[in-house]
């Protein structure tokens, strides 16, 4: 028997974990997932998805996008990237790499920079025209955090439980 050759790459594996994490999101319009990796050892440090803080019920808080600010999700949802950082529970994130299914906002960019991460690999940049993402890119560039779009040769990964 010879070695399998159709195994997935490290990048596919980590972005796959970010995508799988996004499936836990309750947000009806955008499900975002993130995975933080030690780039030297390829060890997974943390994962996260966009959701409400602990003890804030998914059923009681709003999921709408528009209307009275107090009744939209934006005041309450913790972004996937920040959740991944907070889920690290004190692990050292210096020199680590973030895989995220959506380009980080300005607030997450601040946390990414302050935690010492050095690279971001993202899948979608659907809000690239917004000031939030422009401000994010400005800070990441000033801080020397590299960011590049995810590239792969495969279209999908199948998980079959049966
Ligand atoms: N980089 C990002 C950007 C946004 N999110 C979260 C915040 C919301 O739950 C959702 C965006 O909702 P939309 O305005 O597209 O309806 O995604 C995040 O986790 N990370
Ligand atoms: Zn964010």
Automatic annotation (TrEMBL):
This is dCMP deaminase. The active site is at residue 81. Pfam families: dCMP_cyt_deam_1 (PF00383). Residues 9-147 form the CMP/dCMP-type deaminase domain. GO terms for molecular function: dCMP deaminase activity; zinc ion binding. GO terms for cellular component: cytoplasm. Belongs to the cytidine and deoxycytidylate deaminase family. It comes from the Bacteria. Its cofactor is Zn(2+). Zn(2+) binds at residues 79, 105, 108.
């Amino acid at each position: 028997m010879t070695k399998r050759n159709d195994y997935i790459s490290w990048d596919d594996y980590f972005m796959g974990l970010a995508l799988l994490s996004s499936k836990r999101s309750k947000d009806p319009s955008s499900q975002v997932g993130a995975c933080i990796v030690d780039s030297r050892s390829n060890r997974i440090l943390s994962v996260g998805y966009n959701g409400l803080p602990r003890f804030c019920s998914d059923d009681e808080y709003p999921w709408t996008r528009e209307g009275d600010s107090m009744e939209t999700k934006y005041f309450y949802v913790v972004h996937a990237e920040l959740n991944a950082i907070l889920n690290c529970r004190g692990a050292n994130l210096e020199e680590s790499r973030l895989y995220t299914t959506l380009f980080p906002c300005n607030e997450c960019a601040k946390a990414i920079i302050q935690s010492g991460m050095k690279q971001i690999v993202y899948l979608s940049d659907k809000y690239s025209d917004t000031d939030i993402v422009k401000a994010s890119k400005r800070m990441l560039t000033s801080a020397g955090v590299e960011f590049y779009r995810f590239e792969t040769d495969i279209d999908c990964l199948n998980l079959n439980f049966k």
